[in-house]
Amino acid sequence: MVELKTAAEIERMGVAGRFVAQVLAELREKAEVGVNLLDLEKHVRRRIRERGAVSCYWDYAPSFGRGPFRNTVCLSVNDAVLHGLPYDYRLRDGDVLTMDLAVSVDGWVADAAVSTIVGTADPEDARLVAATEEALAAAVEVARPGGRLGDISAAIAAVARRHGYPVNTEFGGHGLGRTMHEDPHVPNAGRAGRGMRLVPGLTIAIEPWFARTTDRIITDPDGWTIRSADGSRTAHSEHTVAITDDGPRILTHTA
């Protein structure tokens, strides 16, 4: 069931969103050559504790993972793109690092992800990261009252096609609010003009992610980390967005 949010509830989600965005910005600054993923995880734990917030990942045990998840941030490197478990790994020059964070503040959730390139960027990796950011911006732009959920999905897929990237629809965006995952599912490909009507009060996480050369995925033996099936590099961008009478409102901006 889709739960529409009041203007006051959207404001409260915005508080969580600003915190999520700030922590991701801090992680981006810290993600340098030689930094251990476990140190990034420790930073997030400390920030959540200081804020009095609650991690949406800790003890998370969905049907698709080998739960419970016992970390506070998903850190995925290179061909890993979703649900990456932080582990004892020091970042190397040229790594593509995706950081995905969902946090509850005073009972309201926000979720966002960014991909960054550590040190020297391979031009093709930079193009891939930029494509996910472009797709996210295109999807947010059409997330307006009177539109359809398929408009968002189609906007993402159109950017992927333009850049020559295949699209996986198994994992995509989702509703959120009181919990991290709510209805509706927001696939990264679809037909414009189809699907659920977009109405004020709907809050969704929009999250385009692409691999360079495949739409197939595999899961690591850890039961969580999802990778491109052919080992090609990946990237992922995500915002929490509210549909309002005035249009889309991104809740995971730093300001």
TrEMBL record:
It catalyses: Release of N-terminal amino acids, preferentially methionine, from peptides and arylamides. Keywords: Aminopeptidase, Hydrolase, Metal-binding, Protease. Substrate binds at H83, H181. The keyword Protease applies. Its EC number is 3.4.11.18. Residues 11-245 form the Peptidase M24 domain. One of its GO terms (biological process) is proteolysis. A divalent metal cation 2 binds at D111, H174, E207, E238. InterPro entries: Creatinase/aminopeptidase-like, Pept_M24, Pept_M24_MAP, Pept_M24A_MAP1. One of its GO terms (cellular component) is cytosol. A divalent metal cation 1 binds at D100, D111, E238. Pfam families: Peptidase_M24. Belongs to the peptidase M24A family. Methionine aminopeptidase type 1 subfamily. HAMAP family: MetAP_1. Monomer. Removes the N-terminal methionine from nascent proteins. The N-terminal methionine is often cleaved when the second residue in the primary sequence is small and uncharged (Met-Ala-, Cys, Gly, Pro, Ser, Thr, or Val). Requires deformylation of the N(alpha)-formylated initiator methionine before it can be hydrolyzed. This is Methionine aminopeptidase. It comes from Nocardia cerradoensis. The gene is map_2.
